Amino acid sequence: MSQLPTVAEITVLHQAYAPTRAAFEKVHTHCGIVWRIAEQLLAGPGGAGLDADLVRAGCLLHDIGVYRLYDDEGRLDGANYVRHGLLGAEILRKEGLPEVLHRFCSCHTGVGLTRHDVLSQDLPIPVDDYLPESAEERLVMYADKFHSKSNPPRFLRSATFAAKIRRFGEDKVVAFDALMAEFGVPELGPFEAEFGHRVS
């Protein structure tokens, strides 16, 4: 595998692609919070044997494609938000980063998207499976579920996220339950105190 980018190099990438300072603050902060959540989970039983450096890079890069959905006035194209993972993979490919990192972008949406999801929901992305394969990919996807870039940003309890995805089918809740069993449930209280984002 090619050498992973450093935290400083990833920050430079965020700065290069962020269309506004506000977009940078929102997306870059979220990616950093997802890393902090994943770091906590890595210390648990589910983190044994995982590549922490790869997880860190995956967390810090997973949402870089969101920048491509902002217009010049800083408005986010919510209708096409599901495309942000593939847009992120395109950015990393263009930057010459290793393929193993591209998948953290393309395979972290929800609890994974299947061909059936793309077709049944008429999603604006190529029909394919976008599912995490490695434990590192699953961990990044899972840690991402506990923080939202909403206005204002907030942390999500596991029950809150499960209720949110139930509308997409019970199979999604089952998949999320499997991730909880694999990695455990993060303690969000310290993050709420540190970042000032409420837990809901």
Radius of gyration: 16 Å
Q: Characterize the overall form.
A: globular
Q: pLDDT average, as an integer?
A: 96
Strand content: under 5%
Strand segment count? 2
Give a short account of the largest sheet: 2 strands, antiparallel
Oligomerization category of the chains in this entry:
single chain
Overall structural class, as computed from helix and strand content, comes to: mainly alpha
* Order of secondary-structure elements: HHHHHHHEEHHH
**Through-space gap between termini:** 39 Å
Q: What keyword list fits this structure?
A:
mainly alpha, globular
What can you see in these coordinates?
This protein is mainly alpha-helical. It has a domain of 134 residues. The chain is 54% helix and 2% strand. The chain has 10 helices and 2 strands. A two-stranded antiparallel ribbon has the order 1-2. The N and C termini lie far apart (39 Å). The model has no long low-confidence stretch (mean pLDDT 96).
In short:
The chain is mainly alpha-helical and 200 residues long.
